[in-house]
Amino acid sequence: MHAADCSSRSSYVLSCVNDALPNSQGSADYSTRPVAMAQLPVFEARAALLHQVSRAPTLVLVGATGSGKSTQIPQYLFHAGYPTIGVTQPRRVAATSVARRVATEMGVALGEEVGYCVRFDNCSSRDTRIRYLTDGMLLREALSDTSLRRYAVVIVDEAHERSLQTDILLGVLKAAQQLRALATQPLRLVVMSATLDVGLFCEFFGGAAACRLVGRAHPVQLLYTPEPEVDYLEAAVAAIVQIHLDEADGDVLVFLAGQEDIEAVETALRKRQRLFPPSARPLLVCPLFAALPASKQELALRRAQGGARKAILATNIAETSLTIGGIVFVVDAGLAKQRGTHASDGGQLLASLLAQPISRASARQRAGRAGRERPGKCFRLYSEATFAGLAPTAVPEVARSSLAASVLLLYALGVRDVFSFDFITPPPAIALEAAHVQLLQLGALDGQCEITAQGRRMASLPLEPQHAKALLASRALGCYAPVLTLLALLTIEVSRRLSSRVFGGWRRVGGCVWMREPYGCGVAAQHAPLRRRMRSSYSRLASPAKPQPPRATTSSRRRAIL
Fold first, then answer.
1. Other Cβ atoms within 10 Å of 132 Cβ, number
2. What is the separation, in whole angstroms, between the first and last Cα of the chain?
3. CB of 272 within 8 A of CB of 329?
4. DSSP-assigned letter for residue 149
5. Of 382, 378, 350, residue with least CA distance to 364
6. Contact present, 30 and 43 (Cβ < 8 Å)
7. Minimal CA–CA distance to 313: which of 253, 257, 268, 366?
8. What three-state secondary structure class fits 490?
9. Among 111, 321, 461, 504, which residue carries the largest CB count within 10 Å?
10. Cβ–Cβ under 8 Å, residues 349 and 431
11. Which residues of 456-489 are buried (b: 16+ CB within 10 A; e: fewer)?
């Protein structure tokens, strides 16, 4: 690999598009803040940030990875006297972990002044002043209160990801701002990320103020391969082994496309560890992906003990907001799974989830994870020419995904004409038309494109419209239990390596809580024909793959990795 130049600035500057800013603002005493927090780039800019929030309804903030945006700015607003601050994150693991960290820094119990709210887990109360939640949960709150009067300030973190729910939420927040423009407590917004199209967001919010937090806490050295890798999984394994045996102390964060890749690399690393020399330190391999149980996700976020080096194999959920201590080395495969749609032979839009090259903005986000605590290195498993050919930013999900659930949610929020809804990036007209056709067929909309009573019930369920309709209809048809079982299976990602574990039965444990158990007992045992069909349908997935001939690898490519 060869190294590329990377910025090593250690000074921090808040540059704003408007006038100069005052030196002090707010009533908190920051003289007693811990030294580590006071050394963050955002600390010196706290007065300017509070001034901008107080004078402008919307602030667009761009700050380098590790500058302290997600944890410190909500605390500054809290000490400045804002009643309730809502902070949205694109993923639940980010919302829960950042909330725990902020509660620890403030010295309060989680769930009191600081809390979080994600699907199936609400750790907050009426006394909560800083509330971390996912984009989807805030949209759910908007169903009962479109003005979001509970919040004085809403911070939309990691807005650069442009997920479907984030784009919908931005339009809902803009409408809520307009509803509360003349109220005694107007709604203030802070939209922030490390890589953001400032012009686009400022224009969307009517000329919003913009600030840039310049500087990275520590420099990151970038290393590329001379040419693209034929087998990026083998290259990732080799890079991890190289770092473990040759580099100084520090944990490794590896970005892979999905759960299947993570399990393959994890298996290969455990086999390679048997060949390590006796003098090598232990290597602790920790997977980290969305479908992983919360207890195992927490294991990946803890620091390694006993002198071991930790190698975290993660999807892009570790790209933003998650604070993982001890990371010094990053290995980037340059891929991520993206949802999309494609037309079938019959003209219908079919959903897909495929591994795609990341954008340059995402690559910079990943590299920044190595410089949060000390100077680090980022090993990119692709060439510098490949990096230059990547798209500047990711294509917004609203432009490549099915919109049926989002359109139904907008109608439930009271939007009369979804085609004129204020999207930050308008979706394709054909996607909106397809969503309306589907909702009409399901009975969620009537002939006048008005939401029906059944459509409101469907919108209240956190499911795709067709799944919500099936669940509601199953009660009348007397097949509630098997339909619920099937929908539970459809909401998880099925992979070849997990197929033998996925199709266990489910048993009911009070109310609507279901727990998985082996076949032969519980609800699944009462539906033997259904069980046989499920096994038959997925037997091909469970069958072992045919052996493939080994890929040819030139000595030069092997030297580039090892």
1. 34
2. 9
3. no
4. T
5. 378
6. yes
7. 253
8. helix
9. 321
10. yes
11. eebbeeebbbbbbbbbbebeeeeeebbbbbbbee
Residue found by looking up tokens 């990275």 in the block? 216
Three-state secondary structure call for residue 130: strand
DSSP 112-127: TTEEEEETTEEE--TT
Token pair of 247 as six digits: 């580099």
Q: Digits of tens for pLDDT over the chain (562 positions)?
A: 655 544 333 333 344 433 333 333 334 444 445 656 777 888 888 999 999 999 999 999 998 777 888 999 999 999 999 999 999 999 888 899 899 999 999 999 999 999 999 988 999 999 999 999 999 999 999 999 999 999 999 999 999 888 999 999 999 999 999 999 877 889 999 999 888 889 999 999 999 999 988 766 688 999 999 988 889 999 999 999 999 999 999 999 999 999 999 999 999 999 999 999 998 999 999 999 988 887 888 888 888 888 899 999 999 989 876 778 889 999 999 999 888 776 665 556 677 778 899 999 899 989 988 988 889 999 999 999 999 999 998 889 998 888 999 999 999 999 989 999 999 999 999 889 999 999 999 999 998 999 999 999 999 998 999 999 999 999 889 999 999 999 988 876 544 333 333 333 333 333 333 333 332 233 233 333 333 333 333 333 333 344 444 344 333 333 333 3
Q: Give the C-alpha separation, 482 to 471, whole Å.
A: 10
* Cα distances (angstroms) measured from residue 329 to each of 137, 200, 378, 441: 34, 33, 6, 51
Among the listed residues 250, 242, 265, 263, the one whose alpha carbon sits nearest the alpha carbon of residue 369: 250
Q: What is the Cα–Cα distance from 65 to 44, expressed in whole angstroms? A: 16
Which residue segments constitute the domains of the chain, with CATH numbers given?
7-214 (3.40.50.300), 220-398 (3.40.50.300), 411-430+441-477 (no CATH), 478-562 (no CATH)
- Asked if 318 and 362 touch (Cβ cutoff 8 Å), the reply is no
Q: How far apart are CA 267 and CA 285, in angstroms?
A: 10
Cβ–Cβ under 8 Å, residues 124 and 140 = no
How big is the chain by its Cα radius of gyration, in Å?
25
CA 544/CA 497 separation, integer angstroms: 9
519's CB contacts (< 8 A; 6+ apart) are: 503, 504, 505, 525, 531
The model carries a pTM of: 0.77
State the Cα–Cα distance between residues 310 and 319, nearest whole angstrom: 17
Burial class (CB in 10 A: 0-12, 13-18, 19+), 426: middle
Angle at 509 between CA 506 and CA 510, to 5 degrees: 140
Residue 90 is classified by DSSP as S
